[in-house]
Amino acid sequence: MKALEYIWAENLFFFAIATAFLAVLGWLWRHTKSFDIPLPLPIWLKFWFFTVQVFGVLVPIGVAIWLRLSSADTLPFAILLSYLLMLALQITTEVVLLRQFHSVAWIAIPYLYLPYRVWQLYQGIVMTTAVGQVGWFQALLVLEIGLWIVNYSFNLIQLPGLLRWDQPVIGEEEGKLGSTLQN
What we know:
Helices cover about 75% and strands about 0% of the residues. By secondary structure, it is an all-alpha fold. The protein has one domain. The termini are far apart.
């Protein structure tokens, strides 16, 4: 299978599996209380979201446009187009699940898509190395991998608040058990 066909087949397969998983998750959690994003967002999160939009979306769009206009080589363009398509599908899925269905299943979306995005970018490095393309494009992919790994970490940091774990749940019985265990 050619590299470009492989990229699109892999993306389609991932999207089908992720969508099926989210559909099952949404069905399993259908009786869970509807969900809204906790507001106000912390300042650091707003800054990080802006950073991700610039370096994770706008820069790749700009590079993809530049590659399409200036290069006869389609592989780097196809890698970025695939990356941007999957990113757009993730955002669309998040919006639909959160705003249309108010489902808590939207929380799971980044935990599915971000590891796949890192895999996509790594595959882009491997594919461009195999055909002798090195340099700035691979450096861009490495920077994108770093960006999304940090973003994944920030998603993990936000998880307790999103799942409303920030409220104390220790009751009297648990307090007694804890004091019993300490004695």
